[in-house]
Each structure stands twice: as C-alpha cells, then as structure tokens.
Amino acid sequence: PEPKVEGGNGEGVELLFPSVMFAGVLMFVVSALKLSRFITIMPAPVMIGFCNGLAIVIGLSQLHPFKDPEHGGWKTGAEMIWMLVICAVAMLIMEFFPKIPLKALKVFPSSLVAILIAILIEFCIVRPSGSKTDVIGDISEFTSETAFPIPFFVKTDAVAYDLSSLGTWDSISKILVQGFLLCCVGTIESLLTSEVVEAFVKTPSNGNKTIGSMGAANLISGFMGGIGGNSMIGLSTVYCLNGGTGRLGPIVAALGVAACVMGAYPLLNYIPIGALAGIMIIVVMHTFKWFSFTMLLAAVLPESLRTKLGPKFSRKVPRVEVAVIFIVTILSNWPKGTNIAYAVAVGLAICAINYSWESSKTLSVEESYSDDGVKYYNISGPLFFGAGNRLLKMVHPETDPGRVEIRFGSSTSIMDYSAMDILHKIGMEYANRGKSVTFRSLCPASERLISKANHLVKSIEYTSRDVDVKDMPHDQERNNMVG
C-alpha cells in the first residue's frame, strides 16, 4: 500500500528488510552457480524492450514532484513555472555542459553543475522574488537522527517498525516471494545494465562478481534497514555520461554518498526537486532506444511507402522481433502487477518459440537410390522437438524398399529427447514391416545422447561420423545398435 502521508512509509514496510536480506542470499546462490552466463542468450529485441521499459518507469516517476500532494492534480501558479524552469535548466546543463570544448571543465560532472546552478536559482532568484519550489528538505528531510544506519529491529525516536507479525506464516510467505522477485528483478536488471554499460565504455564485466557483490550489499542493506538495490541503468547512464569508464568511479560515488548522508546531510536538504527531475529526464532520453520507433514503422508500412521515406525505412527486421520490443516495453509498466522480470521472461519465451519455429523450417530431406536398391534419405538441419515431426512425415516406410539409410549431414545433430523419440518411432515403423533402417554419420554429441538414453529409445541402428557423409566408405564406419 502507498504511504498515507508524503515521505512516510506504507503498510507492511517491515517485511521489506528481511525480503531484501533473503534476496541477497539468493544472489549469492546465483553467483556461486555462475548463472550469470545465461545473459548471453538474451535476444537483442528483449534488450531494447528492457531499456525502453526502464526509461518509461524512470520517466513516469519524475512526474510525481510536479503534482499537488493535497489535491492530487498538477501544481499551478508560480511554483509550477519555477519548477519547470529549474527542470529545464538542469536538462540543458546535463545535455550540453559535457560538450563544451574546454578541458578544464571536463573534471566537473554535469549533474553536479546542474544541481549547484539549480540551488543558486532557487535561493538567489525564486525565493527572493516571493515564490518557492520544493527542495529535498520539504519532502523527506535529512536529519542527524537518520544520518547513520542502524539495524531495522532496533527502535529509536526517529524510526520504529512493528515487527510483531514477522513470525507468522503469512509474513514468511510474503518475505520468500518478495525476496525471490527482488532477486530476479535485481539480477536481470544488473546483468542487462552491465551489457548496456559495456557498450558505453567498451570494457568487459564479470557478471558473477557483480551478482555476488550485489548479494553482499543487499544482505547488509536489509539488515541495516535499507531498501536494497542493484545496478540501475539510470544511475549507470549518469555515470557514463559524466565520463566514467572504470570501477574506481562507482567506489568514489559510494563514498561520496556516504559522506553526504552521514556528514553533509544538511546541504542535501537544499537541492530543488525540479533539478533532480531534469537530470533523470535526460537519463531517460539517453536510455530509451528511439530507433525502435523507426523499426516499428518499417515493420508495418508497405514497401512502396518505405522506399519513399528514405534509406532508414528501406530495410526492416522480422515483425515478431519488433513485436517483442514493444511487448517487453509495455509489460515492464502495464498492467499493474507486472515488472521487468515478467516482461523479460515473456520476451524470451516469444523469441524462443519463434526461433524454434523458424529453425524447424530449415530441416530438409533429399531422397536417392543406390544401384543395389538401397534408399537414402539425406537430411540437413537440426533435429529437435520442432523438427522431429517433420522428419517423421518425410519418410515412407510403407512404400520404401527393404533397406533404408537415413544419412545425417554436417549441419544435422540430435538436440533433445523428442528427436531421439522420433528416430525410435521411425525405426519401429520399418521394423514392424520387416525392413531395416540405419541412421548414418551421427556426430559425437548425438551419439552420446542416444547412448545415455538407450533404455528409452530402442531399435535405433546408427553409425558414427568418422568422415564426411558424402565421401564415407563403408569400411570406415562403426556400426552400433541400441536396444
């Protein structure tokens, strides 16, 4: 539930801290099992949709400061005008300050300059003129009582949580579910953010170390009453836009945040909210993949119209991949209850199904006969659950001669149990009619699969791939029989 007062906590916030700690433990498991390697199978459309979805999430969250907390509508009058001015100034500084061709200015982060200029505008122009805009101190003030973190179960005058319900099964189940979702979302977003940052800085990252360190950070953060976190694409983009390229920058940033919160916290209370919104809007503009709209138009417009619109529209990607981009983008935000983990899972599922369908179409079969009456089926393409049934329909045990050989090409291999089951069925079809069928030139990986599953797939006679199928003499083959 949302907080009842601005800057307050929502109901059930005490469950957040153990959930964050549990998420940290799960991240350790992900790191130990080296599961981060699976990020390499992330399709480009899912990555683009991820960036777009997070950009929208960040962008929508910047609208909140411009709303009146009492009436729920937009702010009006001089306050709204000055907030828009401060926001626009911060945006202009963020965008154009790094482009000033002076080396002396390169040492100043554009975001810091934007905040300092915004403070000057607020306290040297806006307030002397009789107006004001919200600053951090008006929304959620930093004080000495909250400057230093303490364990969430320790009660103080400033912070006290109701922990009486933590031992109930309902609370435990919520903690487990929330922790699992936090781990999924945090891990996926961090690994995808690493991919985006790699494109910025042109240096590789170590996913397992990233997830492991994030697990330690969340475990400590939850214990000390923090909300947890991960490698957010917004902050990472700010870092890259300010010239950061290595790991020293984030360390300095973390120490700087700690120094500000625990020592210089009174200064933070003077930062205008409009400036923070302007900085993050620029982050949104750099995070969102605007070329995805061009891809969408190219996918839906007819070729004649695309040719007239210019070279950007003359070529297109498959429509299903464009659909994945926008499905992931939408599911990252809508409907209520979805998040980036669900969106990425749906995008992966669609891409996997599409790949399976298209790969199954690559299976081809050519028929030929030898002088002694042996029929050959020369197959090319992967054999898996999507292509197996196609092969079953391409052979003709009813009309084939007594001896048949199905020869695997160099691009053909058995990928799963479904393919082995199809070979078993084909073998049984011929055996039931008193005919023989041999599967020739299986690659070593296919041979191992059949060997391990010999109690499940009977009547498969095959030969190993010792030489190329086209030039294979019979005396160089090794015959095998399963069953």
What can you see in these coordinates?
This protein has 483 residues and is an alpha/beta fold. The protein contains 18 helices and six strands. The chain has helices at residues 16-32, 44-61, 77-96, 110-126, 136-139, 169-201, 207-223, 233-241, 248-262, 265-268, 273-287, 291-300, 303-309, 319-331, 340-360, 388-394, 417-431, 444-452; strands at residues 364-369, 375-380, 403-408, 436-442, 460-464, 479-482. Strands 1-2-3-4-5-6 form a six-stranded mixed beta sheet. β4 (436-442), α18 and β5 form a beta-alpha-beta unit. The termini are far apart. Residues 467-483 have low confidence and may be disordered.
Order of helices and strands: HHHHHHHHHHHHHHHEEHEHEHEE
Task: Look at the helices and sheets and give the structural class.
Answer: alpha/beta
Assembly annotation: single chain
Largest sheet: 6 strands, mixed
On the 0 to 100 scale, the average pLDDT is 83
**Percent of residues in β-strands:** 5-15%
Biggest sheet strand order reads 1-2-3-4-5-6
Helix content: 40-55%
Shape: elongated
Low-confidence stretches: 467-483
Radius of gyration: 31 Å
> How many beta-strand runs?
6
Short description:
The protein is an alpha/beta fold.
Write the layout of secondary structure elements.
Blueprint (H helix, E strand, L loop, with lengths): L15 H17 L11 H18 L15 H20 L13 H17 L9 H4 L29 H33 L5 H17 L9 H9 L6 H15 L2 H4 L4 H15 L3 H10 L2 H7 L9 H13 L8 H21 L3 E6 L5 E6 L7 H7 L8 E6 L8 H15 L4 E7 L1 H9 L7 E5 L14 E4 L1
Parallel strand pairs: 2-3, 3-4, 4-5
Antiparallel strand pairs: 1-2, 5-6
Helix pairs in contact: 1-6, 1-7, 2-11, 2-14, 2-15, 3-4, 3-11, 4-11, 6-8, 8-11, 12-14, 14-15, 16-17
